[in-house]
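Batch manifest, entry 17 of 40.
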Amino acid sequence: MNDTNLRSDPGLALPAVVITGGTEGIGRALAEEFARDGHTLVLVGACSSFNNVSSAVLACVAVTMLARPEWRRRDLATVAIASVVMILVNSLRICLLTRSDASHLYWHNGMGEQILVISQTLIILLIAWWGVKPRKGEA
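Output type: structure tokens
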């Protein structure tokens, strides 16, 4: 592919160019090309929501396997609840990141990041514990 294939017309009435994986590799190279051509960019880097949901699923599975060897129907519900809660927490984080530059620094690189990580860990463990806690009539 030659260089002219990567270029587009900056006169197009596009509000922005969205590039997933735009923080490294091929995505970054494309982002640099579009920026040189004068386009407004929206870069989507690593998906922290996916990482949070993965952590929630792994934690729920680990707690369940430590508590008892067999899976029950409600264990799947516990994993689903933990996943949804992590998506909501991550959505809150994104809202906090976009409020201002100072807010972004606090919630991305500052003390806010540690607060969220600790909060997410505690929430996941509480949901997992709730899922394996014996109910009335269970052994």
